[in-house]
Design brief:
heterodimer; A: 106 residues; mainly beta; six-stranded mixed beta sheet; five-stranded antiparallel beta sheet; 0% helix; globular; B: 114 residues; four-stranded antiparallel beta sheet
Chain lengths: 106, 114
């Protein structure tokens, strides 16, 4: 069983829709990271959180430590949000999920 | 904005050859990492490096792999004798600035072993 599970694996949306990507993990962690991987392969760190909620622009990340679950929300989605979103947890080293491929159509 | 850089962006090599992948982390960072991503698979941790020594390594990081920080700026990953299964995208990352735990990734080196 994977230590980090993401759902859905693939997601398509119309521009403007509210998007939710989920991440569940089975190990004890010190922090959870949300990353964005562009079609060219580059990886950008979006959030690192260990409790509660963080917001940056149209992106919101939440974590529930007791339930070992995190969500990434995108409000008013835009075609430029199309990417793979990766959840990773750090007990110490980073353990990555398989990613959620998001496509937002105009 | 400071960024992590990696060279080369692409490398093609013959099986059994040695390759060195180079990274320049963000200058005030203290922690350095290598990851790899085989095509179509998830990103995997290889090794972390702090205070001029390996702090953790994965099962993938066997004797064929080594890392070095030869000077104050470069961080290298060497694969001594490449295998076909080493073909992957290799990412360097660094952390340890003001946003302590956030890792900043380089653009990656795509390695193809023939």
């Amino acid at each position: 069983k994977n230590e980090v599970e993401q759902s859905p694996q693939n997601l398509t949306a119309q521009e403007g829709e509210f998007i939710t990507i989920n991440c569940s993990y089975s190990v004890g962690i010190s922090a959870l990271h949300w990353l964005q991987q562009h079609p060219g392969g580059g990886i950008v760190s979006l959030f690192m959180l260990s409790s509660g909620k963080k917001k940056h622009g149209r992106l919101i990340a939440t974590i529930n430590i007791q339930e070992k679950h995190s969500s990434l929300h995108i409000t008013a989605s835009h075609p430029r949000d199309s990417a793979v979103y990766i959840c990773a947890v750090s007990p110490d080293k980073l353990i990555f999920g398989t990613g959620t491929r998001l496509q937002v159509f105009p | 904005e400071p960024e992590v850089t990696q060279t080369p962006s692409h490398q093609v090599t013959q099986m059994g050859q040695e390759v060195i992948l180079r990274c320049v982390p963000i200058s005030n960072h203290l922690y350095f990492y290598w990851y790899r991503q085989i095509l179509g698979q998830k990103v995997e941790f290889l090794v972390s490096f702090y205070n001029n020594e390996i702090s953790e390594k994965s099962e993938i990081f066997d004797d064929q792999f080594s890392v070095e920080r030869p000077d104050g700026s470069n961080f290298t990953l060497k694969i001594r004798s490449t295998k076909l299964e080493d073909s992957a995208m290799y990412f360097c990352a660094s952390s340890g600035g003001l946003d302590w735990g956030t890792q900043y990734f380089g653009p990656g080196t795509r390695l193809l072993v023939l």
